[in-house]
Write a structure and sequence with these properties.
The chain is mainly α. The protein contains 6 helices and 2 strands. The chain has a two-stranded antiparallel sheet. A hairpin with a 2-residue loop joins strand 1 and strand 2. Helix 2 crosses helix 3 and helix 3 packs across helix 4. The longest helix is centred in the N-terminal third of the chain and has 23 residues. The chain is globular, with a radius of gyration of 18 Å.
Length: about 140
């Protein structure tokens, strides 16, 4: 029996790259990048999101998160407001336009994922999800 761990890693990376490429292409008409989508989603689900929270969720430095938030603010997708619990801090919130873009981008992402996984039936998708969850649980990620 041959050792397929190298092949599996390569296949997983190739599948991930393909999915990311499709996702970026699907987001182009919306006008945001996958990174900006993730930032918007983080801000949307985090009450009183500070730059540090966005940085932590995106696994980037606070300075890089500030740059992403600056771009989102220029695009009128987010606003910075005083933190209601700490006058020295600032929180980031979605604008109505930001919520609409996030909803459109979310639909584009789901359609992109659906197209990427179209060759798998429901049982195969469930099996793949279970296997990937197990890999993530045992890898510590």
């Amino acid at each position: 029996m041959s050792d397929t761990s190298d092949d599996l890693g390569g296949l997983l990376m190739q599948a991930t790259r393909g999915m990311r490429r499709r996702w970026a292409e699907a987001l182009e008409p919306v006008g945001i990048s996958p990174h900006e989508f993730r930032a918007l989603a983080t801000i949307d689900r985090t009450e009183n999101a500070r730059v540090g929270v966005v940085a932590q969720e995106l696994r980037i430095t606070p300075r890089s998160a500030t740059e992403v938030i600056d771009a989102l603010e220029r695009a009128t997708l987010v606003t910075r407001e005083p933190d209601p619990t700490d006058r020295r801090a600032v929180v980031v919130r979605l604008t109505d336009h930001g919520r609409a873009v996030l909803a459109t981008a979310g639909a584009a992402r789901r359609a992109s994922q659906e197209a990427h996984l179209a060759g798998l039936d429901e049982a195969e998708r469930e099996q793949l999800a279970a296997l990937l969850r197990r890999v993530l649980e045992t890898s510590g990620d």
